[in-house]
Amino acid sequence: MLSIFAGGKRNISVTLFSCIFREMLFSFMVSFFFFFFIFFVNQILLMAQEVLVKRVPFGQVALLILFALPTIIAQSAPFACLVGTLMTVGRLTSDNEILVMLSSGLSYKTVFFPAITLGIIISLISFFVNDVLLPAGTLQFNKLWRKILVSTPALELEANSVKRFKDTIIVTGGVTGNAIENVLILDRTIDGERRIIMAGTAELIDAGNEGLSLELEEAFIHSSKEITWDNYDYAQADLLQYRVSNEDIIQAVISISPREMSSRDVYTSVTERRASINERIDARKTKLLVQAGALENALREGPQGAGWNSRASGFSGYMRELRSVNSIITDRTLSIYLIELYRKFAVPFGAFCFVFLAVSLGLMAKKSGQTVGFIFGTIISVIYWSMLFIGQTMGLRIGTHPFWSMWFPNFLSLGIGIMLAVKKVIK
After folding, report:
1. Is the Cβ–Cβ distance between 98 and 424 less than 8 Å?
2. Can you tell me whether residue 310 is helix, strand or coil?
3. Which sign, positive or negative, has the C-alpha torsion 276, 278, 279, 284?
4. Full-model pTM
5. Distance (Å, rounded) from C-alpha 363 to C-alpha 379?
6. Residue 299, class by beta-carbon neighbours within 10 Å (0-12 exposed, 13-18 middle, 19+ buried)?
7. Average pLDDT per 10 consecutive residues for the chain, totaling 427 residues
8. Which of 13, 230, 280, 402 could form a disulfide bond with 338, CB atoms 3.0-4.6 angstroms apart?
């Protein structure tokens, strides 16, 4: 590589940029396949194993994996950019090629420019995959999964699990083949009757395309239209056949989370949710004003007033309404959508923020630059992913602003990278 310094300044810059960029791109591809394999095993093969055990055709399993690939690509690319850049700059530093470059009158910009260019390209590609290909893949995934569920409804029953359908919840114990132990079913009938059905053993029956069919032995049924202690019926049956229709299974299982939507769709959902929350808050505030006025009149009129005896219940009602307003303001669903909205931008553009940290750390390498870069890049990736998880948890549980919950790791890596770069240049 030292031969690239023989020439005019303009040719040196272009040649250096091309050479460093190609090496960074190669290291990125190596790192990408590494992270791709990790996420692939973690998310896809486990799902494939689950459906293969239930004898789903291999061709359909392969299609499910194909439609789920955009999720893995979007997650792998930013971390691969970090590790690839660290490996490349670390190698250049440990082989003294950075020193030769500086001795030839060039600056650190020659290393930063290809890294920043790669970071921008990877960020844009990752965002496109996450915002366009992921929703499209999810749509096709759900269509195929719907088809599999209709032909193999037994996929929905697992050992020691809780499955929620449209109006039905099924709690299962141990599962051996088609035999299920300790089954608990909670459902609601068409006329609004609530039922609790318990059975010591049950058998999954092949009902074709009619849905999920269970044959319950020694079943106990408790039913009531209202949750009271004196208005209920109960019955026992030696054998009871219980069915969940395919329509109920599909409606319960095939749902799109905000993570699987495009950023525009998530933003639209956030806007609609905020409008709904504002309407509810306005209605509650109007009710609070009426209650506050009634309390004020009761206190002003004193014991002779008509509302004096009901002032305690009026005050407790006012406090309940006030707490309900606070619960509406801290809407959990809105927080989930906001976190996912910011996440759709934070994770892809983490690649751009990573390059500053990667180049600055790579310039500090002494020997075995590629190996050290790979190790440090993997450690930073784990820390970054942990910070995202912690930020998401804090945003949902203690109300941390969704923007900072998702973007703080990016700003932290960018800030540390810039500080190290400035310190290196000044030194």
Report:
1. no
2. coil
3. positive
4. 0.70
5. 18
6. middle
7. 40 76 92 88 67 68 82 89 91 85 82 91 92 85 71 62 77 77 83 83 68 79 68 80 67 66 88 81 69 62 55 56 59 83 91 90 78 86 91 84 91 91 70
8. 402
